[in-house]
Each structure stands twice: as C-alpha cells, then as structure tokens.
C-alpha cells in the first residue's frame, strides 16, 4: 500500500500517472467536493471515503467540533494507492493494523482502511452524544435571554454536525459492498471481515438517526418550555391586573365630584377602605388558589 500525504497536486501527479487513470477517477482525485463512492474501470477501481476526527474543545460554540478528511483510494490487482488531501486522517493506525495481518492481500488492506475510517465515526458520534447529554442537563436548569440564545446556538451546531456526519455515513454501506464484490480473493476470513464492517456501518447509521431524533426532541422540548414560561408570565400579569383593577375602579368611583353615602363624613372613609381592600384581597386569594400568582 502506498499512501500520499497531503500536499499540492505536483506530488500526486509525479507518483500517479494520471494518464493511465480513467477520466472519472482523475476527476475524483482532483475535484474539491466528492461524496463517498466507488467507480469501476477496466484495470483499477477508485473509491472515496471520509475519515472524521473529533475536536475536544472549541472557544466558539459555532466552531465545528468534527473535522473530516477525504481519502481517495485506487485499487489495482496487487496494490492499493491512497491519497489524502489534509493531515486530519493519519495512516499510522492503518499501517499498524496491516502489519498485524497474517496475509496482507489487497482485500484485507482495503477492509482495514475502511474499518479504521468507520471506527472514527464511532468516536465522533460518542463526542456528539456527550454534547447532547450536556444540553439535556441544561435544558431545565437555565433561564434568561443569554441562556436561551446560548442553548439555541449549541443545539443548532450539534444538529448541523449530526446532519453533516450522516451524509458521510449513509454511502459507506454501498462503498463497503461494492469493494467486497470486486475483490479477486473472496476468502471466508475476508467475507467475515466485510460482514463485520457492514454491521459497524449499520450501527453508525442507526446511531446518527438516534442522535438526529434526540436533537430534534431537544429543540421541540426547548420551544415547549419557552411557551410554558411565557404562558406562566402572562397568567401572572393577568392575575395582578385583575387584583389592581379593583382598587382602580373603587378609587375612580369615590373620586367622582358627586355626593355619595358618607360623603364628607368619617364613615365614608371606612366604606371606601372596605370596598378598596376586601374585593382586591378576595381576587388575590382566588388567583393564588388558581396558581395564577
């Protein structure tokens, strides 16, 4: 297996005779954006996969916590060439696992490369799962505009990265099946390894679906809590408005410039205070009983 490290196009073109590679394969190597896929040609096969790496900490909540790296592989009859476009995905683990193989045939090397990339998906999904658990803990524990804005930013960023990771995971099953079908030596051990790889890809796909449902639930629960808090605030405002409306009405009545019972006498003060305090206190107690205050 030959692996070309990240760099300009000159090293790629100096090692790989792009003239001998099919046009579609050349586009796969040089195009800036390619999805995970496999293309078949008369003397070689080209596949594209993505490795991901989780970033532990970021200073900005909008910064991505997952880095992806495109890996291009060209499989020949007895050799495989891999090309990486950046330093995110290291080949040291792949080489170490290949050295441990009893029979390092091309199919085993391809399986090792794909399995190492899928293992990186598990690490990234575990990091995203921990972020969602932190969001769940904060869901019921904070209030205020600053908390709401921060929660929405963190939840949106998590959802964005889950969707991006899901786009990388979904084609991997087709890639694994296609690469298994083209192997010239389909031994029982190689078949078992590719079946295990398919099982890993299926688990990753189910995990991404679960995380996507979880972050959607977090969004919906967060919005429901905001609506509930708004309704509680509106009930309190309505309750206090009802309490204050009684003294306002009584004050307006006794403030009219017309004689009334007790006008100009000490008894009038008692009547005014009675209609001022008793109805307001009654409304207050009713609102407290209804838990509006």
From TrEMBL:
It is a multi-pass membrane protein. Its main location: membrane. It is found in: Cell membrane. GO terms for molecular function: cobalt ion binding; cobalt ion transmembrane transporter activity; magnesium ion binding; magnesium ion transmembrane transporter activity. One of its GO terms (cellular component) is plasma membrane. Keywords: Cell membrane, Membrane, Transmembrane, Transmembrane helix, Transport. The keyword RNA-binding does not apply. The chain crosses the membrane at residues 237-261, 267-287. Belongs to the CorA metal ion transporter (MIT) (TC 1.A.35) family. This is Magnesium transporter CorA family protein. It comes from Trueperella pecoris.
